[in-house]
Backbone:
């Protein structure tokens, strides 16, 4: 054997550094999107389409049929004012709802666009031999291009914008340009959007009274003051996602889940995550488990003197909590009385459209970007989430704000959404690879301290909440927890999206949910069949969750002290603490 085969090449480190730096530079321009992955996907689609004469014939026929429908529609419009359309937009597409789009020639423009959009959907899907992930990426990318080229985005083809210009004598364009300059300046200075400064944690949001009773390099633990004379003996520990600030669960006083829980007679603790920087690049998933929920569980049980607690995790916090609970079950740690997961995935084989950004090429690009700066910035993550709903989050914003001159008023949830956090290199790389790409948790291959864990070992009752319009944790994916554990499982499907569906306080209008409890080792239903068996209720799911917690809690007792100085947990600072203010 050639001795050089096993020798260390002195250029190995240099080559990797050059490759990483090059990928990181490209990622800065593409917002983390891998050009190689997109090109590979389109090549796969184009080559298979070229080798599919039957599909080509079908697409040609579809194009001719749509052209015929369009000509027929135009002729009917000439004969009658309110002719039936050639095609209706999808239910979620509100772009052409204004009556101005019923007038000629704008109705023709809108109909031609919708027919063209439908044809491209047929052209990018159903091509035999194309990798499923590549098909999804081609369809998604094509949709982004069409959304960008929609007639609503151009002055010459948007009658609503034209009317606005006439009514305001052009002032809307001047106002829109001023908004654009303001937003560009704020973005360059790293400032939040206009109006967000009115929602400062501790002043107008995150106002529930409490104390920081524990701090390490990754978390501050908040203990909230009781609002009732007696409380349930089992405290509630909330593990929010570190991709966001915790105070989505303590927004304004009227929609604060924390305040609502304390008003129901629960002692509430909340983890507030440190916003990592380059010095935290080596924080791993295990660091987050040990310094996060495990450190908090130790503190909560010692401060309250309770041997049991209710644990709730939201989004990534729910995924981490499920890992923590499975590890505790493996290690015979029985301190969890119940587990609640909000919009949290435990099975990642079908993560929805977010999976478009998770493959080897994409991960290489993201890892290179994180390698160069030590973290993934919230703006770099936000671009991916915005593209998933480009109509609502990008182009409608551009139209309304920068062309029609109408800036949406800032409110608490919008301000919170702009208060982003960073993701450390080691943790985020492990999260994407071990969970999203390899689905280790669902397959029983996820290792903690060198030993595998499994969700099937969890015996505590679980309460799971999913949301109907969730682009981050699609409810069909969240529902798959039924396949991973045999314990008692109450599953809720609530109206709303990933954030608004969770912030669903009692009295919130137009809120409803489905709920069904599966008994231990009882039969499970597929997601779509589950809906037909579940009970439908109007109102907030919070009330059902409160009853569920009460039924699994003891007789109310006097509230515990705020912190426990004699046990090493003195009150350090008033809530909301310091970490939530880090930018």
Residues:
């Amino acid at each position: 054997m050639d001795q050089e085969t096993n020798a260390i090449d002195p250029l190995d480190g240099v080559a990797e550094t050059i490759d990483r730096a090059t990928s990181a530079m490209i990622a800065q321009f593409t917002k983390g999107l891998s050009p190689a992955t997109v090109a590979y996907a389109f090549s796969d689609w184009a080559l298979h389409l070229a080798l599919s004469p039957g599909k080509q014939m079908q697409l040609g026929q579809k194009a001719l049929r749509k052209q015929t429908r369009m000509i027929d529609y135009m002729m009917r419009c000439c004969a009658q004012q309110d002719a039936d359309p050639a095609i209706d937009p999808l239910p979620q597409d509100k772009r052409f709802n204004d009556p101005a789009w019923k007038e000629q020639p704008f109705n023709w423009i809108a109909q031609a666009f919708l027919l063209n959009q439908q044809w491209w959907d047929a052209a990018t899907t159903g091509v035999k031999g194309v990798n499923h992930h590549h098909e999804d990426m081609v369809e998604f990318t094509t949709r982004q291009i069409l959304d960008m080229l929609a007639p609503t985005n151009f002055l010459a083809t948007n009658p609503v914008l034209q009317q606005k210009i006439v009514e305001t004598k052009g002032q809307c364009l001047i106002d829109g340009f001023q908004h654009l300059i303001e937003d560009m300046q704020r973005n360059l200075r790293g400032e939040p959007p206009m109006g967000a400064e009115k929602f400062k944690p501790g002043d107008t949001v995150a106002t529930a009274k409490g104390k920081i009773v524990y701090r390490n390099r990754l978390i501050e633990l908040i203990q909230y003051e009781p609002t009732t004379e007696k409380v349930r003996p089992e405290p509630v520990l909330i593990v929010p996602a570190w991709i966001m600030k915790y105070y989505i669960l303590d927004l304004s006083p009227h929609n604060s889940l924390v305040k609502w829980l304390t008003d129901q007679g629960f002692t509430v603790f909340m983890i507030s995550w440190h916003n990592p920087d380059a010095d935290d690049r080596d924080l791993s998933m295990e660091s987050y488990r040990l310094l996060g929920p495990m450190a908090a569980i130790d503190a909560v049980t010692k401060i309250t003197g309770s041997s049991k607690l209710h644990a709730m995790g939201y989004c990534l916090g729910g995924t981490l909590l499920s890992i923590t609970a499975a590890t505790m079950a493996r290690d015979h740690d029985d301190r969890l009385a119940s587990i609640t997961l909000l919009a949290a995935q435990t099975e990642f084989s079908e993560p929805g459209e977010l999976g478009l950004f998770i493959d080897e090429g994409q991960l290489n690009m993201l890892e290179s970007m994180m390698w160069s700066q030590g973290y993934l910035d919230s703006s770099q993550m936000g671009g991916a989430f915005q593209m998933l709903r480009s109509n609502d989050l990008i182009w409608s914003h551009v139209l309304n704000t920068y062309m029609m001159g109408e800036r949406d008023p800032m409110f608490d949830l919008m301000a919170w959404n702009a208060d982003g956090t960073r993701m450390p290199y080691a943790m985020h790389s492990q999260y994407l690879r071990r969970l999203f790409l390899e689905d280790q948790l669902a397959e029983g291959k996820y290792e903690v301290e060198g030993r595998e864990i499994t969700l099937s070992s969890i015996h505590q009752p679980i309460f799971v909440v999913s949301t109907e319009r969730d682009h981050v944790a699609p409810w069909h994916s969240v529902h798959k927890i039924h396949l991973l554990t045999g314990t008692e499982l109450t599953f809720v499907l609530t109206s709303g999206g990933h954030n608004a569906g969770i912030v669903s306080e009692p009295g919130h209008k137009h809120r409803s949910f489905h709920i069904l409890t599966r008994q231990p080792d009882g039969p499970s239903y597929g997601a779509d069949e589950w809906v037909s068996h579940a009970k439908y209720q109007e109102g907030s799911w919070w009330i059902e969750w409160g009853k569920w917690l009460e039924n699994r809690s003891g007789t109310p007792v006097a509230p515990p002290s705020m912190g426990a100085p004699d046990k090493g947990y003195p009150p350090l600072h008033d809530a909301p603490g310091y970490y939530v203010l880090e930018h």
Q: What stands out?
A: The two ends are 56 Å apart (CA to CA). The CA atoms of residues 360 and 486 lie 33 Å apart.
